[in-house]
Design goal:
Radius of gyration: 31 Å
Helix content: 40-55%
Number of helices: 21
Number of strands: 17
Structural class: alpha/beta
Distance between the termini: 41 Å
Length: about 600
Amino acid sequence: MLSDSTERDRTIARARLQFLTHAEPPAQIVPEGIRNSWQRSKYLGVGTDEVVAPYQPDYDRESRLVRAAAPVLDRLERTLAGSDASVIVTDRKGWVRDRRVGEKRLSTHLDRVHLAPGFNYAEQFVGTNGIGVALEERRPNVVLGTEHFNERLQNVSCAAAPIRNSVTGRVEGAMNLTCWNGPARTLMAALVQEAAGDIARVMYEFSSSHQRALLEAFQQVSHYGDRPVLCLGHDLVLANSAASARLTGDDHRLLHEAAAELGHAPRTRREVQLTGGETVLMRCRQVDSSAGAAGYLLELAFADVPSGGRPRSGSRTRTEQDATRPWPLPGLAGTDPAWNTVSRTASRCARERAPLLLHGEAGTGKSALVGAAHALTGATSAPVVVDATATGATDTGTDLPTALRQAPTGPGRALVLRNVDAVSPEQGPAVAQALEAAAAQGTWIVGTLHRAQGVPEPLRRCFVEAAAVPALRHRLADLPALVDRLLRRIGADVECAPEVLPLLRRHDWPGNIRQLDAALREAAAGRRTYRIELRDVPPSLHSAGGRSLSAWEASERDTLVQALLAADGNKLLAAQRLGISRTTIYRKMRAYGITLPAGG
């Protein structure tokens, strides 16, 4: 009489054969996760009789994942010595990075089917297997004997679980346990999940140790003088004000790459050209922690300011250098050089009561900038705003000048004429006269508009200075600070999950800070936990399409994004729920520029 497990294996094998030879979905007796994986494997054209896995012999054998997994694998290797089991770690793309085997016969078999370091066991290459399914569906699973898609794998059973970053929740890899088919396989799931958790904890300890070492090195160096100092780690950037005022996120990437190329020399110097064309001399040393290399400490000297501190002939003066340093304004955030420049200009004009023209795209924060600069002077009243598009629409043409004349004036007051370019030629002289009269009373006059070229001729003489407010897409290095500031306005306990910021950085933000604020408020209102997760972000932000969408297309895009988020990025599952094919999902994602975490 056949045992229950043997009978089950034969039933599953028959169901698999029927699925491969017919167009119908797998029989319901097959577990749902296995059915879904079989369908994905068949759709991708994975072979059933030979294991064809890509091979990359060169990889980082000192990566954080490999080093964190080593002590866990060492312990399991001692526990499993002499047994018919093996433990395997892969990275998040399915590349096998380490393997320990309890007995030689199993080791020979695993070599034969390429389940060895350097090979890739993602589902798209090997078909249904523990590693592939765990990474595809991002959850623990067990694949028993005949449940494997490839016949060469059917005499073993395997259990796998994702290894998650305990801070970000991101999948960093997979932990796998493989053994010959037998009764002990029912305990595999618990063991592999415990091991995955152990590796995640070691990775967290590494990360904490690295961060402490970087912070200590940064504090020791930045404590002396005001030279630019930067610390770059795996997931941490520390910069003093002298560095942050002149560097962007892309500059950080260039400097990190240059530091990595210098190797492990204790102290080295190198010139690096930044994204804006400026050259900086970088003095670099590696920072080590108890868990290994933590990152790099960089001391920078820009070409216009040599190490002696005296500007070279023809270089910027001290005053000009100060213009690039952060200039905090009450209630605002940002250290981008262009933002610093306009902040300083607005503050000086407010202090000197010099009429100022601010130009920039809608939503960039022109009115907020005026309000903050005005408050910095000690004024207790808010600026009075008159919108040229909301008045002056009658045939008499007197509404706008009258509104300006009726505004409160005098020292400590500010008057803002919004949308200066909307002032008609007929109204121009009267509007200019009203602004000049207010300025004569000690009122700070500010005009705002989209482009500086749009100022009507009669109004040009009303403004002494002009400054540009940068678009959000041109100051993305300020995005973390802006998000933090906007979330504080929404509620003290609201924060963003770490994986949300990279998504926000990929967006063009045509509506600038106003659009960012609206998106964060919508996400915060719909969040399910104390922080904003990827699933809470409005669907439109998951799309990077460059063209305007019709209402129907926008609705389709949003529906697709919501389905993908609900399926945790699993394209096949999302397609099944929407009643469309996986091919259609991929085509629509390309058409709408949808970007989501990999899920299949």
